[in-house]
Amino acid sequence: MTIFSGYSRVLAQVAPWEWVAEPLPFAGVMENLVLPGLVLIVYMAFIFPQLKKRRDQRDLLNSLAEGDEVVTSSGLHGIISALDESVVYIEVSDGVELKFSRDSVSGKLAFDDEDDS
Asked: Are 65 and 80 in contact (CB under 8 A)?
């Protein structure tokens, strides 16, 4: 006989469990709000920022113009010399012009108006 063998008999004689299991009046409402709440949290944390980033990228691509200094997704820096609906020609050096897909432009670079000297 172990030390805990007597406890099972004591626990079996404890008052019935009906008094413990009384549901709260708003418990059903809370259970129904958990799943929509989780969906809202996932939307706000993951989906909404991605939609904003995609919208910002689309606006950037629509605002490209000749003379803009840009960087591509591969890290190439240059100045747009010509552009088409789906193609961008980027001048990376004097007389060196590369053809890129317009979607490969990842950002604009701002010109520094001040001299470093």
From this structure: yes
Third-level CATH fold of 65-111:
SH3 type barrels. (2.30.30)
Q: Of 61, 66, 62, which Cα lies nearest the Cα of 107?
A: 61
Other Cβ atoms closer than 10 A to 89: 16
The tens place of each residue's pLDDT in the chain, 117 residues long, gives 566 665 565 555 555 555 556 666 666 777 788 889 999 999 999 999 999 999 999 999 999 999 999 999 999 999 999 999 999 999 999 999 999 999 999 999 986 555 544
pTM assigned to the model = 0.62
| 3-state percent breakdown (helix, strand, coil) of the chain, nearest 5 | 45, 25, 30
Query: So where are the chain's domains?
Result: 27-63, 65-111
